[in-house]
């Protein structure tokens, strides 16, 4: 007897899913859906992205099987339900729900939403995994703003439980109900916003912590190490804000701040002087051996 979650949970009515963009996020989101019993089309314009996506997913799932966390037959069934290709139309015709996970460029996304609006059935819900753009901006490119919302997964999507469900100005209650139920059926925790704001919840809170950490450091109130230590030992964060930024890349933090500034025009949103200087010097974090900290070959670190 099959034991896929599909047997117990399809209250959302979402059986066929189209995921567009097979990069870091889209590939794992597609597999989350396939593991939850959905038929999934994963589409990317770059064949190389799809080859990489399949290789990475096979390696990740092999490791789950080795650790006894996933049965071989469930893995094989999930791969059998996952169809990879470059033809957007192939997965569009039957899709109950689309998850867009292409590059974070508004022009690319709005063009794609306009096309998805033309080629998917009228009932299909269109969602975006964008980290920053609000759904209303994408909905404006379609004739179905009531069936557009964001489903914001976290990296790595196969592991992280949180999915922010973000309504746009015109998103209907029925769309939100379906999106929330579907998220639960994936084994994730839907976190519903009452109304849209760029960056949503978790990343905005994280960014506020980072900004305050930089403010304290640049003001000479404490060392990097003291600030990181306070976050770990008092707030229970697994890593301090500087340690985390070294891991995710100072360039990413710089781009996020610059994009936010472009949107708001608020000088408080500009990258800080110390972040600017490090990025200009090519000190991008662990990947370059130096960011906020300097990393030795044995993994030990000291403030840079
Ligand atoms: P990525 O750069 O790893 O992958 C993007 C993929 O989209 C590439 O494979 C590219 O070939 C493909 N693509 C570009 N234009 C396309 C089009 N028109 N049609 C089909 N495929 C297209 O990017 P990543 O990191 O997976 O991010 C994707 C989205 O997820 C972005 O909106 C990002 O903001 C969001 N996101 C990223 C997170 C992260 O930690 N990387 C976390 C949560 C959301």
UniProtKB/TrEMBL annotation:
Residues 199-295 form the 3-hydroxyacyl-CoA dehydrogenase C-terminal domain. The keyword tRNA processing does not apply. Residues 17-193 form the 3-hydroxyacyl-CoA dehydrogenase NAD binding domain. Gene3D superfamilies: N-(1-d-carboxylethyl)-l-norvaline Dehydrogenase, domain 2 (1.10.1040.10), NAD(P)-binding Rossmann-like Domain (3.40.50.720). The keyword Phosphoprotein does not apply. One of its GO terms (molecular function) is NAD+ binding. Keywords: NAD, Oxidoreductase. The record marks 152 as: Important for catalytic activity. One of its GO terms (biological process) is fatty acid beta-oxidation. Pfam families: 3HCDH, 3HCDH_N. InterPro entries: 3-OHacyl-CoA_DH (IPR022694), 3-OHacyl-CoA_DH_NAD-bd (IPR006176), 3HC_DH_C (IPR006108), 6-PGluconate_DH-like_C_sf (IPR008927), 6PGD_dom2 (IPR013328), NAD(P)-bd_dom_sf (IPR036291). Pathway: Lipid metabolism; butanoate metabolism. SUPFAM superfamilies: 6-phosphogluconate dehydrogenase C-terminal domain-like (SSF48179), NAD(P)-binding Rossmann-fold domains (SSF51735). NAD(+) binds at residues 21-26, 44, 104, 109, 131, 155, 287. Belongs to the 3-hydroxyacyl-CoA dehydrogenase family. This is 3-hydroxyacyl-CoA dehydrogenase.
